Each structure stands twice: as C-alpha cells, then as structure tokens.
Amino acid sequence: MNAPLNTPPEPSGPEPSGSGKPCLTLMIAAPRGFCAGVDRAIEIVERAIERYGAPVYVRHEIVHNRYVVDSLKAQGAIFVKELDDVPDEAPVVFSAHGVPKSVPAEAERRNMLYVDATCPLVSKVHRQAERQIEKGQHILFIGHAGHPEVIGTMGQVPEGQITLVETVEDVATLELPQTDNLSYLTQTTLSVDDTEEVITALTERFPQIVGPKAEDICYATSNRQSAVKIIAPASDLVLVVGAPNSSNSLRLVEVSERLGTPAKLIQRAADIDPAWLDGVGTLGLTAGASAPEMLVREVVAKLAEWRNVSEETVTAAEEKMVFKLPRQLTE
Ligand code: SF4
Fold first, then answer.
1. Which pLDDT belongs to residue 299?
2. Does 160 score more than 60 pLDDT?
3. For range 280-300, the mean pLDDT
4. 196 and 237 assigned to the same domain
5. Of 29, 62, 188, 305, which has the fewest Cβ atoms less than 10 A away?
6. Ligand 1 within 6 A of 242 CB?
7. Rounded to 5°, angle at Cα 196 from 217 and 173
8. Does ligand 1 come within 6 angstroms of the Cβ of 62?
9. Shared-domain flag, residues 128 and 212
C-alpha cells in the first residue's frame, strides 16, 4: 500500500537547496517511452475512428498502457477480449502484439472490416516462423508464456511444430518430436542478456540449431535496456514508468536490479511512495515502450513537489524509426 502522496519525504542524504527542499539529481534515460510500433498502433486506432466513425472495436489492449487505452476509449474505441465480442458489421483493430492466424481467418469468414496494427517487427518474426516451418524445422520459441505476442507468434504455425522455451532451466528438460532440424526465434521484448543465455544453452544442447539472421529483440527494447545499463549504476533507485503487463517495462526493472540498483515499476506519478526517496540523491527514470512521455513529465512534476530536482538526460542511442500505416487507412 502506498503512503499518502502529500507527505513529503524525510530530508535525508542530499544537501537541502536554497528552497529548503533536499536536492535530487534525476538521470532520465533516452530513449524511453513510445516506440515506432506503439506510435503506429495508436495512430491506426485514431485514424480508424476518423474514417469509419465510432465505435471502432479493438481486440485486446492496443498497447499495454491504461492511460493510452482510456484516452482511446474516450475517442470512441471499445476494447474487447475476443472477436466473438465484436458485431459482424463493426470495424475492428488487432493490437500491436500480433494475433494468431486464426483471428484474421475468423474475421474474413465473418466478412468483417479489420485493420491489423501488429508491429511490423512482430510481423517479421511471424514471417520467419513460416519460413522455418517450410524448411521442415521444429521451432523453439523463446518468450514468456501467456504474453499476447507469444500467443500470436505461436499461432502462426501448426500446433506441435513450435515449442515455448522460457528459461535456461527449460532447455535441459525439453522433449522434442525431432532434434535434427531445429531453429529458434524470440519474442521482441525480452531481456537481451537473458535471451543470450537461453540461446547459448540451446546451442550447447543442440549444436545444429539455426537462428534468425538478425536478432528478433527489437531496437526499442534493446535501446531502452542499454540506457538503463548506463543510468542504473549511477543511481540509488530507478523508476520505470510502465504497466505490470508490459513485457519490455518489466525487463527494464530487471536490468536495473541485476546491476544492483533497486527499481520500481509505476503506472502513474500517484504510485510513487515518498518514502522510496529516503536517502536517494540520484534517481534514474525511464519508461517502457508503451508509456507516453506525458506520464514521465507527470513523474518529474511530482518529484519536484518534494525535491529540488536537477534533470540530466543520458542518451544511449538515437531513434528515427517510423513505420508506415496500413494502406487501407491512407488511401
Ligand atoms: Fe514493435 Fe518493439 Fe515497439 Fe513492440 S516494443 S511495438 S516490437 S518496436
């Protein structure tokens, strides 16, 4: 349970400034927050509402962020779990995480108007999976059970031809229908370091296994992790703005903790317990790929109520990626 938010933290550690508030150095990671796939998915829903009129149905959270979902709801989106919850005549958008092949097939069978907001980098993994199956390979898919992207990617190939691997420990106990023609793929939002370990374990157990030419972990996931690797060692605590079901946000918390710096996942500034700041002179701040910058600024404003904040941005990489919208929304 969080402490009341209007309680200022006990001044401790850093020297009080002229304003009487203790000082706080804020190391803000860059890049952080929205990636090109999230930007595109949100724009798809907004354009679909503009073009087809409200309501537009969205299967699953378009991206894992409550603030984003609520603001799209206010514009006329209706979020549902399954296609069964969508009337035949209503337009429907599939989320950025991707969907199993059975979903567009069902939409086509029902003659529905659908727009696929699957991130192009997830679609790339789907195509790789198809190619590996064409080559007769059994796929080992590295990912987290139950995540929508994992369900979507595993649903690209016939059942029984893909096996989920979550951890290094899983590798030792794998029982496969074949071991002579294996390949692997990964979820796009994994920990770069954990995935490397799982791939190493797979390669040791199955020396013939083949992987994709370029890694599947996306640029946004790896850049955000690289930035945390810079700010965490210099910080007493790291705050990650993101949702508890956001894979890439959870990985940012783990990256910081692995470097020995405690980290907290928060959805909004209101989640910050002022007691967390006791003894903290330098605070790291980042945001997962589905968290809007507005929420980061909200956190900075909240911290400034309690501390004399000096901001420093630490840049690990420049991002210029932009994805095209589906043609049906631009023509
Ligand atoms: Fe695409 Fe990566 Fe963003 Fe996911 S995190 S939507 S894979 S760019």
1. 98
2. yes
3. 98
4. no
5. 305
6. no
7. 110
8. no
9. yes
Mean pLDDT in residue range 177-197: 95
Query: What whole-number percentage of the chain has pLDDT above 70?
Result: 94
What does the DSSP 8-state code read for residue 95?
Answer: -
On the question of pLDDT at 11 being above 80, the answer is no
Q: Does one domain contain both 207 and 251? A: no
* Residue among 10, 15, 46, 149 flagged as catalytic: 149
Q: Is the pLDDT of residue 29 over 60?
A: yes
- Same domain? For 126 and 173 the reply is yes
Residue 77 lies in a domain: yes
Sign (positive or negative) of CA dihedral 134, 135, 138, 140 = negative
- Ligand 1, atom 2, lies closest to the CA of 218
Same-domain status, 209 and 187: yes
Residue among 273, 277, 231, 224 at smallest CA distance from 252:
224
- The verdict on whether 149 is a catalytic residue reads yes
Instruction: Provide the number of structural domains found in the chain.
Output: 3
Check pLDDT > 80 for residue 274. Answer: yes
**In whole angstroms, what is the distance from residue 99 CA to residue 111 CA?**
18
Instruction: Supply the mean pLDDT for the chain.
Output: 94
Same structural domain for residues 81 and 146?
no
Nearest-CA residue for ligand 1 atom 6 is: 37
User: Does the C-beta of 289 come closer than 6 Å to ligand 1?
Assistant: yes
Q: Is residue 14 part of a domain?
A: no
Index of the ligand 1 atom closest to the CA of residue 35: 3
Tell me the CA–centroid distance for residue 35 and ligand 1, in Å. Answer: 6
The CB density around residue 138, as the number of other CB atoms within 10 Å, is 21
Residue 44 lies in domain:
36-116
The residue to which tokens 């290094």 are assigned: 168
158 and 100: one domain?
A: no
Reported as a pLDDT band with limits 50, 70 and 90, residue 7 is: very low
**Domain at 224, CATH number:** 3.40.1010.20
Which pLDDT score is estimated for 14? 56
Does any domain span residue 329? no
